[in-house]
Amino acid sequence: MKFNYKLFCLLFLMTVAGSCKKYLDVVPPDVGTIDYAFRSKNEAENYLFTCYSSVQQLNDMNRSAGFTTSGEIIFPLNLPGNPIDITGFTLITGTQNVGEPGLNFWDGRANGTAMYVAIRRCNTMLENIDKPADLSAVEKKRWIAEVKFLKAYYHYYLMRMYGPVPIVDVNLPVEASTAEVKVKRQSVDDVVNYVVGLLDQAIPDLPATIDNPSKELGRITAPAAAAIKAEVLMTAASPLFNGNPDYANFKDKSGKNLFPTSFDATKWQKAATACKTAIDMCEAAGLHLNQTFIPSPAVTNLPDSLKRVLTFQTALTQKWDINPELIWSLSNIWHGQEYCIPRLTQKANQNDGQNPAYYAVPISTTDLFYTNKGVPIDEDKTWDYADRNQLRTGDAANFYYIKQGYQTIKAHFDREPRFYGSIGFDGGIWFGDGILDAKIAHYVPARGVTALAGPKTLQKTNITGYWPKKLANYLTVYDDGFNWTDFSMPVMRMAGLYLLYAEALNEANGPTADAISYVDRVRARAGLDGVVNAWAAYSKNPSKPTTKEGLRAIIHQERRIELCFEGQSGWDLRRWKELQGVLSTPLTGWSIYEEQAINYYRARNVEIPVFNTRDYLWPIWNNSIVINDNLVQNPYW
């Protein structure tokens, strides 16, 4: 596509991004190059797409803290000669440090993207937008809005990692003094206000929809910018940033508080208003929950139960230009399906070099998903929670979910559709992979080294016995090689926005009918009863949805289920200040080398997380602190 091509083709502009990183790299490079870059509309458009390049790099989930530090996925860290940079996955083991911070988005080191370089590009674009004589007023207005959005997003990305960060609204002149370059961190509230202000400026001049997907997918729209604004305000209202006592005494060197010292309840109402505005804009633009599974090519023998599972799966993996749910997705293809698909055929087993399948899901993640009654597994009074790991054999009633006659465990039965759409497990049906007849679909044989999907070499082993099925397009085939059906990772989709609104309403006003209704919209797509009815009928705690605390727990779990593996849960758990609790116990998997079911289904520790209060915010690299004596380090580092 034209957009992708132009985004990466200008090598001389990419060298702009790689220049000296002293302090924050806010001093522009050789201005002679800038004059060339803006000599015409075509050249200026290339520079616009260079401004987008940093956000496109976020499509690499291995550098997303929302993915790698969430506890949803375990990557085997002891692999010799790892094919990917696993820095992000190591951060839950207590290895983060100030000497060389992992996922350093401040300086662009250790698998992080240099966000201040990205901001500098945006400033350069805004400073030179008047130069191309052949740029129309309409195009100019849109481009300015896009760049303002990007500059806001880059500041926001830094804020949710580091908290208070320097605001770089304009590039400093080449002749700037050392004192001018030594910028200071601004308070969290100042950063939020700056980001929201930029988004408010951008939204009116952005298009409501992308009318030419072949050339413009990935460019920002007004509904997408409004949705991101809502997320920014939700982040600012959440416990990590709103009167967090852990940071009450965090000040800069002049004595200015960098975090709000008291809780401000009005921030939740502001967030709720922004969420509703974004929802209205999205729906006016034709966006809605993906409610229908439209198979292509044709699928046979597809029951309604499996159709519901595939409807949920394709809300993520369906191509953006035909997916009604995607508010904003990155135009780059998400590469990683080979980490998620178990070996299901003899040919796949023989050609396992292409299919490591080592994105492993811990048991704790699978336990998040509800029973088929729509309540947590430890609350459902009709579900055998105490004996969930006892053996049970697949039967005709569960034919489309579990291999008939195969011995697995009770925990894999009677679960909600999102469980079967998200998790691949021993004995579980894996619809797709080249077989589109539901009656003869593949299943996952995972027990022991002789099993097709079982452990092989260190590089080709799933260490828990669970796969993130949701991250594999059902049309992708792995047999004697890969035949990919690609997709892009969403930044925001309608289900996530609905749940943000429900959360904001509950925090602002308690468990109102409106708040519950937006949760119920998401649940209905999964075939579940509404919250009130489900808890009243099946939960051991039927009054849970009637209190703010109870509905909060429900909404948090709904987001972790609905958005699992999408790079969202790690950020949510941080802003809620719940990540330390999630990572306070060992992450476990099954005894994958055992062939007999009775031995296989014995939980074992596969990772011992180490997460402390300090880990909620990233440390600033020590070198940056030494060079710029106006900077202060984050608390507890």
Can you put this structure into words, describing what you see?
The strands form 6 sheets. The protein has a two-stranded antiparallel ribbon with strand order 1-10. It has a domain at 2-231: Alpha Horseshoe (Serine Threonine Protein Phosphatase 5, Tetratricopeptide repeat). Mean pLDDT is 93; it is low at 1-25. α4 runs antiparallel to α7 and α8 runs parallel beside α12 (222-237). It is built from 25 helices and 12 strands. 39% of the residues lie in helices and 5% in strands. It is mainly α and 637 residues long. The radius of gyration is 25 Å and the shape is globular.
Summarize the structure.
The chain has 25 helices and 12 strands.
Low-confidence stretches: 1-25
Mind summarizing the main beta sheet?
2 strands, antiparallel
CATH topology call of the domain at 2-231: Serine Threonine Protein Phosphatase 5, Tetratricopeptide repeat
**Backbone structural class:** mainly alpha
Helix run count: 25
The average pLDDT value, as a whole number, equals 93
The total strand number stands at 12
CATH secondary-structure class of the domain at 2-231: Mainly Alpha
Helix content: 25-40%
Spatial gap, N to C terminus: 44 Å
CATH architecture assignment of the domain at 2-231: Alpha Horseshoe
Shape: globular
Major sheet strand order:
1-10
How much of the sequence is in beta strands?
A: 5-15%
Radius of gyration (Å): 25 Å
Keywords: Cell outer membrane, Membrane, Signal
Subcellular location: Cell outer membrane
Pfam families: SusD-like_3, SusD_RagB
Domain SusD-like N-terminal: 113-231
